[in-house]
């Protein structure tokens, strides 16, 4: 049963910085936490990947983008769950990130989006990572220094970020394709806007540049998969959709973030809260201070009005976000909360991103290392027998 409301005197002395708190986690019961706790649902990760994989035909392979420590959620754990779901190809931003994935079955491949950077030679040689060569200089240097090793190519079809110029590729195409790249990729600039004319323009450029080639092709990440089969080609590589982010609207929520309450106190009408006294109480108000802040990725541009939740009840953040602390108006609660939830079923990464005028990608990748990470799985974990991973 919920505890009765306590007096202002007892609430003002309710400091628990050295005490572990207990959080009710679905399917796990009460779990003690002394710091903010990030729950990652590996079943949801696997389920999201399977749904995205099912959107393309059986002749299309689906990989997974796990760069930036799997979007901040823990690459070894995420990759293991994705292997159990059927993924074999993984994409990272730089060669060093490939080392963070852990020991992989021999049937798995790790592609490096930054291509062949200075200092990558030994990493690629020793671990077999596949550079996605993205400039003429990288192509020539790689083929000269690591002849016979696997590689892929990225073409610039209009995003003008990474990629080999199409004119250069056309001139050197026969020579390069003779080395048998594993994959030719490009990246869509506006895939999250289905009606944007740039999608069709990039598709046509990609087809013209790669037509009549026997090399497998990949154009679609999450947004591209949702654009339909014309964009799927031989290989898709979803990223944000795996982690429950837009534009994959049907994706399951993957993360729950519980913030422990350090102190609860009553303030009178007219009193203010936080640095700069930006928020002032219009009535007798109960303020909970929780242990997280912009050092943990709770963006400082959030603040007054952003919601955290206690069960079904939304409680507004009041005052500025501090480095380690957030203050919340919990006057509507019947009892002192032990924790409040910033991310979960009532507030997705994209809903929080909207409050911060950013995107779900940034919310995920900024989640701090001070959070205790816990991984849940509501499916029976498959045994990882190497024979099951042979293609």
SSE diagram, text form:
Layout: H1 8-12, E1 21-25, E2 29-33, E3 37-41, H2 42-54, E4 61-62, E5 64-65, H3 67-72, H4 75-85, E6 89-92, H5 95-99, E7 109-112, H6 121-127, E8 130-133, H7 136-145, E9 152-156, E10 164-165, H8 166-177, E11 184-185, H9 197-210, E12 217-220, H10 222-227, E13 235-236, E14 255-267, E15 272-273, E16 279-280, E17 285-291, E18 307-310, E19 313-316, E20 325-329, E21 339-343, H11 349-355, H12 360-365, E22 372-376
Parallel strand pairs: 3-22, 4-13, 5-6, 6-7, 7-8, 8-9, 9-10, 9-11, 11-12, 12-13
Antiparallel strand pairs: 1-2, 3-14, 14-17, 14-21, 15-16, 17-20, 18-19
Write a brief caption for the model.
With 391 residues, this protein is an alpha/beta fold. The chain has twelve helices and 22 strands.
